[in-house]
Design brief:
Helix content is about 65%, strand content about 0%. The protein is built from 72 helices and 4 strands. It has a two-stranded parallel sheet with strand order 1-2. A two-stranded antiparallel ribbon has the order 3-4. A hairpin with a 2-residue loop joins strand 3 and strand 4. Helix 30 crosses helix 31. The radius of gyration is 50 Å and the shape is elongated. The N and C termini lie far apart (about 145 Å).
């Protein structure tokens, strides 16, 4: 039915308006108007009744009621009677009829108005509509009622309407008022609600019931006007009730107090209705929107319109008190038991929303003070009290300090008068706070330890205080959840020794209670979580899983089974066998290479800690396992946590956009609870673990975990993007920091998150969009900013040597080896640094640095000049910051980051010139040192570099010579010292080749042969050459210092490698690796730099001392094979001698002097030169002729050729060859090389020996002894490396030499380390390792000789002493573990095994002693040998004493 039809149905007669509308309107004269009024009154008397007239006064076209255009307004006025005409007419008619009837005008006007009111609201159709609409009028009814009330307001102003009579008549016959009618009566100031409350005795009943009905009704979709009316009606009612009930008046009469109490009771009834809804456990969706709507009416913006701030505070205080004390049915014991279920995340949304509304206008201190007052003066509902406390903490993170002070006051008060009320209050409040997690409040274990764990605790003042505490804890035992009992047992309060028995009584009681709860101490984990946080304690199976993880982690880091596990296997055997081992031996697919878990299991098995049957079952189950088990999740199968988390994150995104800090904290608390369900692991700090281990090469985590991590990351990125649209980071709320606090509060989730971020940064960076990069960069920044209360990260494998903060660990995933890597790295770092700069804006300098990772900043210092050549022209200067004028020229930094039209190059260039960025570089943590720059540059793959070869050369030369050479050393530069610059280059080159490349091993893209090492070597060659040619060494000394610089450098490197007097095998290998790396660098440097040219009396001479010292100290130790330098190194050193001699006035003479010095002091270089002479001579002779054209060959070089020719002739059987006039070592080395060159022809060698008989002269004997030394060295090499050398050939050659030398004592000297005389130089030929193993070679060689030869050897002077000393050395080698076992099986006549050598050597020595005459050794020699053998082998010592020193025997033994 249309509105017009409705209006026409009211009356079938023609109205006054229609009658007037049909007349032609003329301009009236003054007397005509008077006649018209009289005629109108006469007409009304004859034709019109009051109801029709009143209806017509308020009956314009309803279709046009809301139109405001001028033309339409005039049309409406033309269709109805203007109020200026109608109201006076109506008043006149009312007075006329009232006089006729003899009743007051007010009575008649009330009767007329009520008839019209009932006509509007009282029809059957209207009643049905109102019932459906819970007392609200329809739109047409509302319009008619408003017009009626407007007319009534005019009547009221004319004095013809009585409001009191109107309400009395309206309420006659117990008619139930309509709440919207009351609202309109109040709004038009006809009958105010305050008057109704004061005059209507039944107001409480109908007002409460109608308010509930109105709250519970939801307007149809699209009726926005009805929604507004609904809220206005309720807010008006609440405002009047507040003003009447809580406004203080100076003169408070009894009636006023009654009315005030009535208003309070109405509001209380509504509150109790709300709390009943909460108690029934209904969610806002289940309970409808009624309770939620009533809570919204408590909004300050609504209530504050009609009441003062003080009134509102009194109301909120009263309501809060009523809520905290509503139905105090729960006892303290109930609260202790059920407290875990009353956390914020588990509480009703209605209740937490109510607390938020009530607390919003108070400070935290006021709320806590009021809470304490309520607790002291009322019986409380503990569920509401603790829920209120959780809500307060979640919405006000700063409340932690205030609450800590409250707890301190409560405990102090409790121990002062031994008050149990304050004591239980403090414990309940502390536990409730701890349940909200470490991001909100410290754990219960920490609080208990801080309060009672030390000698300064509240209970430590007297025995009475101690007894009070223990008595209190004992009383709690029957009601306590198990996790709190475990806290008290594992972290007991401080008790003096003399009162220890009191504590043990409580511990015994607590253990008994745990056993009753089926959680005995025997089932407590090895690394038990004693926090008391997070609700009920873990099941024993879950706890065992954590124990296994911790035990494996400790085993991996230490290599040993932890003492806790070993003790548990003995003292807690039931838990170890029934919980720990089954969790450890969970079947899985075993990896090909044993991981830490497998190694740990094997270690336990070797220690006999795993029963054989259980281990066999485990192995069989692993073989049958088809897929790896996912992590055990303690989830309710009826819930889908993924969907719950998805909805929570969507709501969180909306809250971030709205910027409601309180709601953000509340939502984060719910998200944290959901994450704790999916990732049930405990926070590491609560079990004493501050380092989490991230395994980078483990199988992927369960699919659910991956989905959750991805969902969190996507949500965070979306929130960053949405929040950045409205405000820059420094104008945003603290939502991101709180978000990260939730993340780091769950270590299991944090581990999964770090693994995912590391994989994204390291492997998938190029696929990330700009929004992803921005969001992830912001996340890394906030993770870094929270490092003070987050665990450290240890990456496995150990890419970084020590545990580092989360941000630094993620930064290590960013590599800059390829073009693609560099582009992603610069995008992420630019976003992170820009975000950090903007986020830290207006903060103190130290706090600003919390938001800027130094590692990411340094990557920009490396990448931006490399990728943007223009940045090299405007480097970060050493001066101060930019001027304000320059800063004003720069556009907004954050807008350049978020601008979709901007490229990374524009943003990077903008950031590079930004003053805040430039200022950071002057702070030590943000300075990119030259060594760090070199480390980055050496990781770049040349084939995938963004720079071409010429561009890279230009960039590297700029960095070395323009950027770092002149920069101060304390700022990471070289201080203008070219030597310092070269030292950095040398260190970087060697470190790059010596590093374990842990990160590179994880990246299959890295190729060790394709790095920028050749480029850096080229830069080193350029700089060293510049030092040598242009005298730019920095210290302004002569160029010969370059040689000292190089050899001093390598000497320091070797010294740093060998850190102890007795180096280990690993140290020796490291030293060998260092020197081999150095040799590769050395071969790349100009050979002339290795020899010093000094001026002696105006004459240039060669000085080889530095070279000789280097070869003797370092090169000798790493030769392979022992006693021989490589051909390339030997040639390089000799070319250095020739090059340097060319700079002297007499090069031929200088070469002779230098070689004479080398022959005398550097036998290793001499032997190596002889060995390689056949290959070196063409090169060196050609070089000599090129350098000194026309000069004859130096005599020493000619001598090398002569010795080589002599040895070859002698090897060929030409006995007439003349012995050259060279050193014995030179001739022996030549002969040794000739024998090796002929394939070890023993026949030809034997013939050569005949020409060198010792009896022919001393020189021949020395040549043979040196030759024996070299052959013994070969024999020892064949023992150690039988696959590389022919053992039999070396042994045969040694035998031939012994046959010639056995009668002379000189051959024994090569086996004595301290009495070698002219043969002392042999110790400088071979390595120290070979020198230590010479006793092994001595006995290995002798034990293979014939009896005749051995008999001749025993007769040799000094043989027995040498044999005893070698035997002693052999014993010491065996005890120290230095003897080496050969790689292959020995032949039948070969004795090489250490145990065999010792056994046969001892037998041989005892036989030799028995056959030696007593006069062979002097008494002092015998006693010295006896003392040396006494501890190592008393049997040999006794044999020496009996055989060689018979006078030492006791007189009592003479009868023998």
């Amino acid at each position: 039915m249309s509105l017009s039809a409705t209006c026409e149905s009211v009356s079938q007669k023609r109205s006054l308006s229609s009658l007037l509308a049909g007349r032609v309107v003329k301009r009236l004269k003054q007397e005509d108007g008077q006649r018209l009024q009289e005629a109108t009154i006469q007409l009304l008397e004859q034709q019109q009744n009051l109801s029709s007239l009143l209806r017509e006064v308020g009956n314009p076209d309803l279709c046009n009621i809301f139109r405001i255009q001028n033309g339409e307004q005039k049309q409406a006025e033309s269709e109805g009677i203007s109020s200026a005409v109608a109201v006076p007419l109506l008043v006149c008619e009312l007075r006329r009829q009232a006089s006729q009837l003899g009743v007051p005008v007010a009575v008649l006007s009330v009767k007329m108005m009520l008839e019209r009111l009932m006509e509007i609201t009282g029809t059957e159709e209207a009643k049905e509509e109102e019932e459906k609409r819970s007392g609200l009028l329809s739109s047409s009814q509302r319009v008619q009622l408003c017009l009626l009330l407007e007319s009534s307001k005019e009547l009221l102003s004319q004095g013809t309407l009585c409001p009191k009579l109107l309400w009395q008549e309206y309420r006659r016959d117990q008619r139930l008022p309509k709440l919207e009618v009351v609202y309109h009566l109040h709004g038009h100031n006809i009958v105010t609600l305050k008057f109704i409350i004061e005059s209507d005795e039944g107001v409480r009943l109908w007002l409460v019931s109608q308010s509930m009905a109105l709250c519970g009704w939801t307007p149809p979709h699209g009726e926005e006007e009805t929604k507004q009316v609904q809220r206005k009606v309720l807010s008006t009612v609440v405002g009047v009730l507040l003003g009447t009930g809580f406004e203080l008046s100076q003169e408070s009469a009894a009636a006023d107090r009654r009315i005030s109490q009535l208003c309070c009771s109405v509001l209380d009834d509504m509150l109790f209705w709300l709390l009943d809804t909460v108690e029934k456990g209904l969610t806002p969706q289940c309970a409808g929107s009624g309770a939620e709507l009533w809570i919204q009416i408590f909004d300050v913006s609504l209530c504050g319109v009609s009441v003062s701030g003080d009134t509102l505070q009194r109301f909120f205080t009263h309501t809060l008190t009523q809520t905290l004390t509503y139905k105090p049915q729960l006892t303290v014991s109930d609260a202790i038991t059920l407290q875990n279920e009353w956390t914020f995340a588990k509480s009703s949304r209605l209740l937490t929303s109510l607390f938020c509304k009530l607390a919003v206008i108070f400070r935290v201190e006021q709320l806590l003070c009021h809470l304490q007052q309520v607790l002291e003066t009322h019986e409380v509902n503990w569920k509401h009290v603790l829920c209120f406390l959780s809500t307060l903490l979640v919405y006000n993170p700063c409340a932690q300090s205030s609450l800590s002070e409250l707890l301190s006051r409560l405990l102090s008060s409790a121990f002062e008068v031994y008050d149990l009320e304050n004591m239980i209050t403090a414990f309940l409040l502390a536990r409730q706070c701890a349940l909200e997690g470490p991001a909100i409040f410290p754990s219960y274990s920490n609080w208990f330890k801080m309060s009672f764990g030390g000698g300064s605790g509240y209970h430590a003042t007297s025995k009475k205080s101690l007894v009070f505490l223990l008595k209190f804890l004992s009383d709690l035992v029957p009601f306590e959840p198990s996790q709190y009992l475990k806290v008290h047992i594992l972290q007991p309060p401080y008790v003096p020794v003399k009162h220890r028995s009191l504590l043990m009584e409580y511990v015994s009681l607590a253990k008994t209670r745990l056993a009753d709860l089926k959680e005995p101490v025997e089932d407590m984990g090895l690394y038990e979580d004693v926090s008391g946080a997070g609700g009920a304690s873990l099941q024993p199976q879950c706890q065992a899983v954590q124990d296994v993880q911790k035990a494996v982690s400790l085993f991996e880091s230490t290599g040993r089974i932890s003492a806790t596990v070993m003790e548990a296997s003995i003292f807690r055997r039931p838990y170890f066998l029934t919980r720990f081992l089954p969790s450890l031996l969970t079947p899985r697919i075993l990896p090909v290479k044993a991981d830490a878990r497998m190694s740990f299991i094997e270690a336990l098995k070797k220690a006999d800690k795993i029963p054989a049957a259980q281990y066999s079952s485990y192995v069989e189950a692993c073989q049958k396992q088809r897929q790896q088990d996912g992590s055990a999740l303690c989830l309710d199968p009826n819930d889908d946590p993924l969907e719950v988390l998805k909805i929570q994150l969507q709501e969180f995104t909306e809250l971030v956009v709205e910027g409601n800090d309180g709601e953000i904290s509340a939502q984060l608390s719910r998200i944290s609870h959901t994450l704790s369900v999916i990732f049930p692991g405990r926070p590491d700090e609560l079990i004493g673990q501050t380092v989490i281990r991230i395994h980078l090469n483990t199988p992927p985590p369960p699919e659910l975990h991956v989905k959750v991590v991805n969902m969190i990351l996507r949500n965070f990125c979306q929130c960053i993007v949405d929040a950045s649209r409205a405000n820059p980071p420094n104008k945003q709320s603290q939502w991101a920091s709180r978000f990260v606090s939730v993340i780091i509060g769950n270590t299991q989730f944090l581990s999964s998150l770090i693994c995912r971020l590391w994989d994204l940064f390291h492997n998938q960076g190029s696929s990330l969009s700009a929004a992803h990069v921005l969001g992830l960069a912001a996340l890394v920044v906030h993770l870094h900013a929270s490092m003070s209360h987050s665990p450290l990260v240890q990456l496995v494998p150990p890419i970084l040597p020590t545990p580092v903060p989360v941000g630094e660990a993620l930064s290590s995933a960013l590599v800059c080896s390829t073009h693609v890597d560099m582009l992603f790295c610069v995008r992420l770092c630019v976003a992170a640094v820009c975000y950090g700069i903007c986020r830290g804006d207006s903060l103190p300098q130290q706090q600003q640095q919390d938001y800027i990772l130094s590692s990411l900043y340094k990557k920009l210092l490396y990448l931006i000049p490399r990728l943007l050549p223009e940045a090299r022209r405007t480097p970060i200067a050493a001066g101060g910051p930019f001027s304000d004028h320059q800063e004003q020229k720069l556009p907004g930094l954050w807008s350049s980051v978020t601008d979709t039209n901007s490229t990374w190059m524009k943003t990077a260039w903008h950031l590079w010139r930004h003053p805040a960025f430039r200022q950071l570089e002057h702070m030590p943590p943000y300075q990119l040192f030259f060594s760090e720059w070199l480390h980055n540059e050496l990781r770049v793959l040349r084939s995938e570099d963004i720079l071409s070869d010429p561009e890279r050369q230009e960039y590297q030369q700029w960095a070395c010579l323009e950027l770092y050479l002149s920069r101060l050393e304390e700022h990471g530069g070289c201080g203008g010292d070219m030597k310092n610059l070269c030292s950095h280059l040398l260190n970087a080159i060697m470190d790059q080749q010596l590093s374990d490349r842990s990160l590179d091993k994880l990246d299959s893209r890295v190729s060790y042969t394709g790095t920028c090492l050749p480029d850096i070597l080229s830069r080193l060659q350029e700089l060293v050459y510049e030092m040598e040619v242009t005298d730019l060494s920095g210290s302004r000394r002569s160029t010969d210092d370059v040689c000292d610089f190089l050899f001093t450098f390598v000497s320091e490197r070797c010294s740093s490698t060998v850190t102890s007097a007795s180096p280990s095998i690993s140290t020796e290998l490291s030293l060998k690796h260092t020197l081999n790396t150095w040799n590769r660098v050395l071969l790349a440097l100009p050979a002339v730099l290795l020899i010093k040219v000094k001026s002696d009396g105006g004459r240039a001479t060669l000085e080889c001392n530095t070279l000789i010292e280097h070869v003797n100290q370092h090169q000798r130790k790493v030769c392979s094979p022992a006693g021989l330098l490589s051909c390339h190194l030997t040639a390089h050193l000799l070319k250095g001698v020739l090059y340097a001699s060319a700079r002297c006035g007499r090069p031929r003479e200088e070469v002779n002097k230098a070689w004479s010095q080398i022959s005398l002091r550097c036998p290793l270089l001499l032997v190596s030169t002889v060995h390689w002479w056949e290959r070196l001579s063409p090169v060196l002779l050609s070089l000599w002729h090129r350098l000194c054209d026309g000069e004859p060959l130096p005599e020493q070089l000619q001598l090398l050729t002569d010795a080589h020719n002599w040895a070859c002739s002698l090897e060929k059987g030409l006995s007439s060859a003349t012995l050259p006039a060279g050193a014995a070592l030179l001739l022996a080395a030549s002969l040794h090389r000739a024998w090796q060159g002929r394939g070890c022809d023993s026949q030809g060698f034997s013939a050569a020996l005949n020409t060198l008989r010792p009896e022919r002269g001393t020189q021949q004997q020395q040549v043979l002894v040196f030759l024996l030394f070299m052959c013994v060295n070969d024999h020892l090499s064949s023992l150690l490396y039988p696959q590389e050398r022919s053992h039999q050939n070396a042994t045969d050659l040694c035998t031939d030499l012994l046959l010639v030398l056995v009668d002379s004592a000189d051959w024994l000297l090569i086996f004595k380390s301290n009495k070698q005389g002219v043969y002392q130089s042999i110790t400088m030929v071979t390595s120290d390792e070979f020198t230590r193993l010479v006793p092994w070679a001595f006995y290995s060689l002798l034990l293979q000789q014939s009896a005749e030869l051995l008999q001749r050897a025993e007769c040799c002077p000094g043989f027995l002493q040498t044999a005893v000393l070698c035997y002693i050395s052999l014993l010491q080698l065996s005890l120290e573990g230095h003897t080496l076992t050969p790689a292959t099986e020995p032949s039948d006549n070969q004795v090489t095994e250490p145990c065999q050598i010792l056994s046969y050597a001892k037998q041989f020595l005892l036989r030799a002693i028995s056959r030696t005459t007593p006069t062979a050794l002097s008494p002092s020699q015998v006693r010295q040998l006896e003392s040396q053998c006494a501890d190592l082998d008393p049997e040999v010592a006794a044999a020496l004493s009996v055989r060689l020193d018979p006078h030492s025997l006791s007189p009592e033994m003479d009868f023998l």
